[in-house]
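Notes from hallway chat w/ T.B., transcribed later so I don't forget. T.B. wanted the structure written out for a chain they're using in a teaching module, and asked if we could keep both sequence and structure tokens in one place. Agreed to drop them here.
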Amino acid sequence: MRGFRSLPLRSRLALLVAAAVAFAVAAVSVTCWFIVQGKLYDQVDAQLGDAHFRLTEPQITALLASCPKNVAGSSDAMRPRDYYVQVVKPNGASCVFSDSAGVVKTTPRDASIAANPDQSTPTFHNTTDSHGNDVRVLTSPLVMGFGPGAQLYPDVALTVGVSLQDTQKTLNDLALVLLLVGGIGVVGAGAAGLWVARAGLRPVDKLTDAVEHVARTEDLTIRIPVDEDSDDEIARLSRSFNSMTASLASSRELQQQLIADAGHELRTPLTSLRTNIELLTRSEEIGRPIPPADRKALLASVKAQMTELAALIGDLQTLSRSDAGHTADRVEVVALQDTVEAALRRARLRGPELTITSGLEPWFVRAEPSALERAIVNILDNAVKFSPPGGAVDVRLKDGELTVRDHGPGIPVDELPHVFDRFWRSPDARALPGSGLGLSIVARTVQQCGGEVTLSPAEGGGTIAAVRLPGAPTPPPDTL
């Protein structure tokens, strides 16, 4: 079995096909042989039954008187041509008309019929003659005379036999033909199975070559041609492979883009931070102190740059976890109105000069609480950041839709398709603090919750951020 498993798949398929055909051919051949054997024996039995061999009482008396010798000069007259004819006594002794063809060996069945001549049912069976040849015999009670006056002769039975040489030759020839045809069929089936296996596994070979190419070169652009009209297992496997490589290529592209964007965004705060630190260090080295006001401004700038770096790194970690496809750490039923209220408290602290109004209706969703709160805080931070001093922000939660409306400058229509891209920032907002990852994190979080988020211009100026999350106004029964 281990050697079979070590063979190539196409060889195993060919062997299995050949084995299945061999089993079928053997079963059909054996069945055919036994059916033909039965038909030939039926013909021999019919031939024996039609012999109608009868003896007169003087012939029987003379025959029994001569036992165990043969009846001289009577073989041609008393024995039909090509038949073995002899009578059997209850003790098994036989009286033969002629031994030129040999003497048929008697059996206990023959002696039983001789001892009970009233048995009217004849018996067919196989035996051998004195030369060892197979003989088919019919043993029946001995009948004297012909016609209506025929009678059973007591204590003897008549055995009529015919050689099975021709029958056995026919069966042997048939067995040889079946063996040759079966062998040719098995070899042909093995060759056909190998051809079918090669043709059927050709797409698998292409898939294997593609996988090996990807493993060797890390080239994820390779695709396997697929018949669009086909829906068999090979086509499905090929489509799955193409989809997998496309997903991997997209993931790699996103990863490379993330690294490139992160490097670009990190370069500015790191450069500013290094410049400020170098100024402080050089001042200490050369012994020329920086004026207190300038020193205070430098330290404040260093602190701001460190805060910006920490926020950027946190945003990058959040996005990288989403890109890796990791499930949320703790998904549970969340009261969205409570999460929005908590985010509003933080927003009011960041924009104390703004008027923030809210109207929140109950709505329960399945989400990771901290990620959902972070997304809502990011939306509110944008509204606070772009609202003019003394402006107003209106927050509403109704039927599972959260809307945040500000009265800021708004977003140009041509910039709306890019607002959820990573590190994208409006030209008018690049002077403001931020990394350009806030709305990207919002989009990922809402998407993981099964919802959607949109930004659109508001009538009278400003922007409306709308978040729609699937849920219900009441919590599920299993959470009560």
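Follow-up for T.B.: Residues 69-80 have pLDDT under 50 and may be disordered. Might be a good example for the class.
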